[in-house]
Amino acid sequence: MAKFIMDNLKIYTQHDIDRLIIHRKGETKLGEKVAVLSTWEELPTTNAKFVLLGIPEDIGVRANAGIAGAASVWRPALTSFLNIQSNRFLNGGEVLVLGHFEIDEPADSSIKGLRDKVAEIDALVYPVIEKIVAAGKIPVVIGGGHNNAYPIIKGTSLANKKPIDVLNIDAHADLRELEGRHSGNGFSYALNENYLDNYLMYGLHQNYNNEAILSHIDHHPKLKAVFFEDILTGQDYSGLFDELGSIIGLEIDLDCMENVLSSAETPSGFGVNDIRKLIILRKANKFSYLHICEGATRMLDGRVSKLTSKLIAYLVSDFVKANISSV
């Protein structure tokens, strides 16, 4: 794997995990059962099917004129997940906690400097995702901004040697122009570079997608969108999920959910249980990865929430349980 002078992947030891576990007599937590990696050579042979990875950065959000905060959620979310009970429903041995990317702030904080830095993050992330997928594992990535969809899609595509399909549950299409990398154009770059095939956007908000993007969706055969306003009428669009191929990435942008702390926090959106139900009911689909992004526990503007980390722990545990129950 390429060496990076500044940014790097911190691989966790069992000691790193143990420091986050809250022990209680008579109970066993997931953190006491999860696997860790000593060498990359161990990855294909580990019993764990899911590889948990953090990208705690909000450079991509700021490069898209958003509010900083997405870098705050990785460690609290991991702590919440590790302290779930290990029991008959989820043991913990199904998951390997790989670690997180340590990403330095760019020296140039201009929009161009931030976007150049996002391209560097892309180059750091995609080889790790490619290696995980090539080993027959399923990455579970907690962000970070939605800019990281691009390197995750790229790494998954390269490992499979073909473009992949993606289901994105999101208020925004993230199909902005190829103007330098940021959180609003990850899917544009993935399409342009032929890593993304069919792209289904589920829950877009009519108020927050510009006309150029709407027209692009209308005229591109690989793009399909379901608007949240149409879902509100009671129409069932779940059949569209079945039209996706055999290699599918699942993207969940937490700004699609009402009152979840994020740069684009919304009072109107999916409820927590709507998304949990969707994950559980889609267990027949063998998703190639899960990417949860844009959530925060603390925003630069002072907003805070202790619930975002527990929400992510629910979504990750639902995803793992749904996949292992469909084997």
From TrEMBL:
Keywords: Hydrolase, Metal-binding. GO terms for biological process: putrescine biosynthetic process from arginine, via agmatine. One of its GO terms (molecular function) is agmatinase activity. Gene3D superfamilies: Ureohydrolase domain. SUPFAM superfamilies: Arginase/deacetylase. It holds the Pfam family Arginase. Belongs to the arginase family. This is Formimidoylglutamase. It comes from Pedobacter sp. KACC 23697.
